[in-house]
Write a structure and sequence with these properties.
InterPro entries: Poly_export, Poly_export_N, Soluble_ligand-bd. This is Polysaccharide export protein. One of its GO terms (molecular function) is polysaccharide transmembrane transporter activity. Helices cover 24% and strands 28% of the residues. The chain is of the alpha+beta class. A five-stranded mixed β-sheet has the order 7-6-10-8-9, with helices on one face. The relative contact order is 0.16.
Length: 187
């Protein structure tokens, strides 16, 4: 009877500890996406240049549904496409009765924002700049609060239409649209 009670207490202690830990390893796709070309999403703004066509050269935003509204050709799907894919798509649409041989260039003008929340000085939405790391984003958001866990943070990221959350160290790079959550430390 005494050994059954001891076994029960040991199992109870292990299950309580397991319940306290919500740590899950970061999915492999989380870091693989960092080595791939940037893919457009809602909130991005691109600069489209159609050489020798000043009326078409302008800055365009990707709308909430993931489309870019372009003169003459209308809505063009942009979500999930790279800048090079957009160049080809716009040129192909312009070839269909508008221009003989359009030369199109697309570059990112403004990335969608990142969000920083949790134990920071000023949680909120912030502009993304290339090369932004978790640590830099936290600095922009007013730094860690006195209760913050400064070793690792949770990042929520949209990868190929699937939203994933992973725990990373503060030196990890961020992508546009990421949400950074700084947890409270236990002690």
């Amino acid at each position: 009877m005494k050994s059954t009670a001891s076994l029960f207490h040991a199992l109870l202690a292990v299950s309580m500890l397991a319940g306290c830990s919500s740590y899950r390893p970061t999915p492999a796709a989380f870091h693989e996406v960092l080595d791939q070309p940037y893919r457009l999403g809602a909130g991005d703004r691109v600069r489209v240049t159609v050489f020798e066509q000043d009326g078409l050269t302008n800055t365009y935003s990707v709308d909430q549904s993931g489309y870019l509204s372009f003169p003459l050709v209308g809505a063009i799907p942009a979500r999930g496409h790279t800048a090079q894919q957009m160049e080809k798509e716009i040129a192909d649409k312009l070839r269909q009765g508008y221009l003989r041989d359009p030369d199109v260039s697309v570059e990112i003008d403004r990335y969608r924002p990142i969000f920083v929340m949790g134990e920071v000085g000023a949680a909120g939405q912030y502009s993304y700049v290339p090369g932004l790391t978790v640590q830099k984003a936290i600095a922009i958001a007013g730094g860690f609060s006195p209760r913050a866990n400064q070793e690792s943070v949770d990042i929520t990221r949209d990868i190929n239409g699937k939203v994933m959350t992973g725990r990373v160290v503060t030196s990890d790079p961020l992508l546009p649209g990421d949400t950074v959550y700084v947890r409270e430390r236990l002690f």
